[in-house]
Amino acid sequence: MNNNAHPTLPFITGRCTLVGAGPGDPELLTVKAVKAIQAATVLLVDDLVNDEILAYARPGARIVHVGKRGGCKSTPQAFIERLMITAVREGETVVRLKGGDPFIFGRGGEEVEHLREAGIECVVVNGITAGLAAVSGLGVPLTHRDHAQGVVFVTGHAKTGAGAAEEPTDWRALAAMAHDARLTLVIYMGVSGAAHIERELLHGLPADTPAAVVQHASLPHQRHVATTLGRLKSSIAEAGLASPAVIVVGDVLRGLAAAELPASTGRFGT
Ligand code: SAH
């Protein structure tokens, strides 16, 4: 741990680790994540973290649910960060448990920055991000030498309000790029905005571009639909899929869509 960057701040005795809890299946945790959870005296747990993972916590560890699930509204980010800083200063071993990977749409970057400003260096333990689990669950790759030269992880739900990025996602530019450079699109938090995303992406991608939506990836109740970009919104509605789900768009899905159209909502392989 390196606290030398802030020599004027008090010596920090506690430790802080941002841990990726993966997409849900506890067996997808890394060994390092399990060790960090076992060492924690305080765990701050996000929504989308499978409670089964908390079985690794030591007896007596303080477990704080800071997501919507625990109460009504999501605990404000600033409050969570204050909690982390206070606990570290009190000498606790703090683990911030986040769904998937902490640095993929997990606000991990903001937390690391704010803790650093308070003189606390966080260690980050990667987790398997939902987009990876989603395509693995379908048995298709994200890249393929014949179909996709790369992959884009993108949010369907841009930050709004004060301090928001000025421009929301430029879906048309993304569609053109995905088409020309042959990229797979993996869209997080996109289900509620699917109509808009479909409409905009159709400016640069053909309507028959394969698409899939995977809900609860890696969990026993995983469901998916294989469809096309032109039918994205209607397929989601017909299948009754909702958050948390990842939308995948691209030719890597071609075999899947052909095999499964019309829409299937079963678990892959069942
Ligand atoms: N840090 C997380 C993403 C947090 S944003 C990660 O790396 O996976 C929350 C979004 O992630 C959800 O809206 C959904 O799009 C996606 N997500 C998280 N868990 C998921 C799961 N098990 N199945 C499908 N999508 C999931």
What is the assigned CATH homologous superfamily of the largest domain? Tetrapyrrole methylase, C-terminal domain
Which ions, cofactors or small ligands are bound in this entry?
S-adenosyl-L-homocysteine
* CATH architecture descriptor of the largest domain: 2-Layer Sandwich
Query: What is the CATH level 1 assignment of the largest domain?
Result: Alpha Beta
In the predicted model, the low-confidence regions spanning at least 5 consecutive residues are 261-270
- Please provide the count of β strands: 10
Number of helices: 8
**Helix proportion range:** 25-40%
The dominant shape is elongated
Characterize the biggest β-sheet. 5 strands, parallel
Q: Classify the secondary structure makeup into a structural class.
A: alpha/beta
Report the end-to-end length measured between terminal Cα atoms: 47 Å
Radius of gyration: 20 Å
Topology order in helix (H) and strand (E) letters: EHEEHEHEHEHEHEEHEH
Structural domains: how many: 2
What is the strand content?
15-25%
The averaged pLDDT comes out at 88
Could you name the CATH topology of the largest domain? Methyltransferase, Cobalt-precorrin-4 Transmethylase, Domain 2
Strand order of the largest sheet: 3-2-4-1-5
Q: What assembly state would you assign to the polypeptide chains in this entry?
A: single chain
Keywords: Methyltransferase, Porphyrin biosynthesis, S-adenosyl-L-methionine, Transferase
Family: Belongs to the precorrin methyltransferase family.
GO molecular function: uroporphyrin-III C-methyltransferase activity
Protein name: uroporphyrinogen-III C-methyltransferase
